[in-house]
Design goal:
single chain, 191 residues, alpha/beta, Rossmann fold, 5-stranded parallel beta sheet, elongated, disordered C terminus
Length: 191
């Protein structure tokens, strides 16, 4: 390899009585260096969300819970959000919480980046959405507490790692609050 580099350089450097006789390659492995970060090419997994955006999405000082659901249960998800509010849980329901003129995907990503917990409302058509599986993946990558609520469908994929909460729409708020308290190490959600 070194000889080939020397030959190629001599072909490019075409000056009479001058040539490169030898090329040496030496690997320098820096110690305690984060070359990925120093390269400037590393894309971090941290999304910067302005305080104004977070304030627009969540009630102040509440536990922030992202409710992932299929469109056809938006009324039920909105009612669940209202009930959870009583327990000091600020829930995000995309169709209700995204203000007019705001970019849909940006607001969803802002909510995902600032949530404290995640609930997948497992209805029959949950998997058919273009958004729900991606929201689940985001929550798993963030490592926030996750609750799969089995309403009509069993969890699938990485969600099967955790025991699902079997519930009805009526019982879901109370059950979710109790399970969240356990997931966040017995912390009181409404103190």
């Amino acid at each position: 390899m070194q000889q080939r580099i020397a030959q190629d350089l001599n072909k490019l450097h075409n000056v009479q009585n001058e040539y490169i006789e030898e090329v040496f390659l030496k690997m320098d492995v820096p110690e305690d260096s984060d070359w990925r970060q120093e390269s400037g090419l590393l894309i971090t997994n941290t999304r910067l969300v302005t305080p104004d955006a977070a304030k627009r999405l969540w009630a102040e000082n509440d536990f922030r819970l992202f409710l992932s659901h299929k469109t056809e249960v938006k009324r039920e998800a909105a009612a669940l959000k209202d009930t959870l509010r009583y327990y000091g849980v600020s829930a995000f329901v995309a169709r209700q919480d995204i203000h007019p003129t705001k970019e849909w995907q940006d607001e969803i990503e802002n909510a995902l980046a600032t949530m404290d917990g995640f609930v997948a409302l497992m209805t029959l058509s949950f998997h058919e959405s273009h958004w729900t599986d991606q929201e689940v993946g985001y929550a798993l990558a963030r490592g926030v507490p996750i609750i799969a609520v089995r309403l009509e469908r069993d969890p699938y994929g990485f969600l099967v790692k955790f025991q699902a909460l079997t519930s009805t729409w009526t019982a879901a708020p109370e059950s979710i609050v109790r399970l969240l308290a356990v997931l966040i190490h017995g912390a009181c959600i409404r103190c």
